[in-house]
């Protein structure tokens, strides 16, 4: 982990769920971390643990000048900023594509111009689209089923072209349903795990869209963070590729609901509504490429991951960090 000690690292989307856990890990490794985030879905509270060690630049990746200012003096970039959520993209394809595609093109262009050595960026299992093959394997993608999935396909294509044309090293990580502390349970676009946990904690029934037999490969956030660290330190042969990042298990949404109800001691049960358009039916990763090229292996199983989300009186409450400068460094 010598690479990170004293290194200038940029995390786009660093105030978000995955990005903020990554920031904490990088600070722990001795890196000088800058965060570029417009706080649209991210929050300053997420950066509470690293607040005094980082440099938060409030800016939008759709603005090339904000990207240029953020990458100045930086050697390694983790690109997490994006508008997530398939349902959001079904409603607002223009905004999702603008942020995720044009924004990513801006980040990559700024990286090229600043001489950044390596970019590790967030892709998604949604790129497998309508392919029914299981487990999902890199190179066996189907057609994207939503504008969000399309945006991630286009991110991978951008990285491929920028890598070949400009010599920047790129590694893409296809996350599969990442969950853990700080994931936002609020609003219509909340992911299933925080939604379930919030309902269970309130003693309300858990809402499943569809029959609940759809399945996912749930990945604890610390495993996703570890994949990023491994990708940034991996040898040159690992670059120019994308990797599935997940434990490689399949859990139905119905089974997840029961794990959550049990962990929270709730007997409120489950209710169903019609399935949401754009959602894929089954998802399970073949993560053998990540194991071979990055040395990645997920370490947390679903039951213990959900257990870690049950509020306990001996856990610290979340409070607001003190205000900091939000001007570019
Ligand atoms: P998140 O919404 O918590 O984090 C995204 C961050 O990007 C937020 O802090 C947000 O404020 C920031 N952002 C959004 N638009 C921006 C813009 N225009 N300019 C600057 N910053 C902007 O989501 P997350 O779950 O932490 O996701 C991180 C990355 O992982 C995203 O690229 C997402 O598509 C990808 N991903 C996540 C999952 C998952 O299960 N959470 C699965 C697959 C892929």
**What is the percentage of strand-forming residues?**
15-25%
Radius of gyration, in Å, reads 19 Å
> What are the secondary-structure elements, in order, as H or E?
EHEEHEHHEHEEHEEEHEEHEHH
Largest sheet, spatial ordering of strands: 3-2-1-4-5-6-11
Q: pLDDT average, as an integer? A: 94
Bound molecules: nicotinamide-adenine-dinucleotide
Helix content: 25-40%
Major β-sheet profile: 7 strands, parallel
Distance between the termini: 26 Å
Total beta strands: 13
From the helix content, strand content and strand pairing, which structural class follows? alpha/beta
Label the overall shape.
globular
Which residue ranges are poorly predicted, with pLDDT under 50 across at least 5 consecutive positions?
Answer: 317-329
- Count helical runs: 10
Describe the overall structure.
The protein is of the alpha/beta class and 329 residues long. It is 35% helix and 16% strand. It has helices at 17-28, 64-71, 86-91, 93-114, 147-166, 192-201, 221-233, 253-264, 288-294, 302-307; strands at 8-12, 32-37, 55-58, 76-79, 118-124, 169-175, 178-179, 206-209, 215-216, 219-220, 241-245, 251-252, 270-273. Strand 1, helix 1 and strand 2 form a beta-alpha-beta unit. Mean pLDDT is 94; it is low at 317-329. The structure holds nicotinamide-adenine-dinucleotide (NAD).
């Amino acid at each position: 982990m010598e690479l990170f000690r004293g290194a200038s690292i940029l995390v786009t989307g660093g105030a978000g769920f995955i990005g903020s856990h990554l920031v904490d890990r990088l600070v722990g490794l001795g890196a000088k971390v800058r965060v570029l985030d417009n706080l649209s879905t991210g929050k300053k509270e997420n950066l509470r643990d690293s607040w005094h060690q980082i440099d938060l630049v409030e800016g939008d990746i759709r603005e090339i000048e904000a990207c240029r200012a953020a990458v100045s003096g930086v050697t390694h970039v983790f690109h997490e900023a994006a508008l997530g959520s398939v349902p959001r993209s079904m409603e607002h394809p223009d905004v999702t594509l603008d942020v995720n595609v044009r924004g990513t093109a801006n980040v990559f262009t700024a990286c090229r111009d600043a001489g950044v050595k390596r970019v590790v960026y967030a892709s998604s299992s949604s790129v497998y689209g309508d392919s029914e093959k299981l487990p999902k394997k890199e190179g066996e993608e189907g057609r994207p089923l939503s504008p969000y999935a399309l945006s991630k396909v286009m991110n991978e294509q951008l990285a491929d072209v920028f890598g070949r044309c400009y010599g920047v090293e790129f590694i893409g990580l296809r996350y599969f349903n990442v969950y853990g502390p700080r994931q936002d349970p609020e609003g219509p676009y909340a992911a299933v795990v925080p939604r379930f946990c919030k309902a269970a904690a309130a003693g309300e029934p858990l809402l499943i869209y569809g029959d609940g037999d759809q399945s996912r490969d749930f990945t604890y956030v610390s495993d996703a963070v570890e994949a990023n660290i491994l990708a940034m330190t991996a040898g040159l042969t690992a670059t120019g590729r994308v990797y599935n990042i997940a434990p490689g298990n399949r859990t139905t949404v119905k089974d997840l609901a029961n794990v959550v109800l049990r962990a929270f001691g709730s007997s409120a049960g489950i209710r169903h509504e019609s399935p949401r358009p754009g959602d894929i039916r089954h998802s399970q990763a073949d993560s053998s490429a990540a194991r071979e090229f990055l040395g990645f292996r997920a370490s947390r199983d679903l039951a213990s991951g959900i257990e870690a989300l049950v509020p306990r009186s001996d856990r610290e409450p979340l409070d607001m960090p003190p205000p900091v400068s939000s001007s570019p460094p």
